Amino acid sequence: MIELLNSRQADAARRAGAFVGSTLAELRRRTEPGTNLLTIDAWTQDLITQRGAVSCYYDYAPSFGRGPFGKVICTSVNDAVLHGLPHDYALIEGDLLSLDFAVSVDGVVADAAISFVVGAEGTEEDRRLITATRDALTAGIAAARVGNHTGDISAAIGAVLTGANYAVNTDFGGHGVGTTMHQDPHIPNNGRAGRGYRLRPGLAIAIEPWVMVDTDELVVDDDGWTLRSATGGRTAHTEHTVLLSSEGAEILTLAE
Length: 256
Description:
The protein is α+β, with helices and mostly antiparallel strands and 256 residues long. It has one domain: Creatine Amidinohydrolase. The chain has helices spanning 7-30, 37-51, 124-143, 150-163; strands spanning 54-55, 74-77, 80-82, 96-105, 108-117, 174-177, 183-187, 204-207, 210-212, 218-220, 227-229, 235-237, 240-245, 248-251. The strands form 4 sheets. It has a 5-stranded antiparallel β-sheet. Strands 1, 2, 4 and 5 form a 4-stranded antiparallel β-sheet that branches. Helix 3 packs antiparallel against helix 4. The longest helix is centred in the N-terminal third of the chain and has 24 residues, at 7-30. The two termini are 31 Å apart. 50% of the residues are buried. The mean pLDDT is 97.
């Protein structure tokens, strides 16, 4: 299903995006060595309740996971890159943490992710990983223009990631959002320009480059959700939701 948002839904998407962005920024400020992943989930649940938002994750049970997810945020640490299921783990200085968060506000969804090193500057490779995903996201957003195709976004992301000498997995990537979290069109993190769905006004899409340091192969944890690097190498993930109009791509999930 592909939804094009009307003006009322677009305003709801902006409210959802503002909340998602500010929540991720708040969680980053609070997180330090010793913070437990279950505490991050509890903080997030409190913020959702205060806002009157609805978690997109708690009851989520797609074919690729062992659902329902049962938590309200994805917490992926070090070699985990996607769908990290919060569990009893206290972060240590130097852990590379990715937080992926989506909610519905007034019936419309926004989705975003950040990666950062806990309590430290991180290694040069950590910084390269995070910077590559951020630069790829910037390139993908620049290609997200009405009249372009999803392949233009994919090609722009892929050029940055492969240019930084990272292999790119295309099984999981960006996607449409609207009244539900994961919609068509699928936007892989590499592809051919000029191919795929033609971008239209009112389309909201989550663009999400992610990368692993030395492989494009994933393995699944015993929890049925957490996706890790097959080699145990470090990973990073960055994501924004954007709304397309004739004026360009409006980033909805910036921190306030």
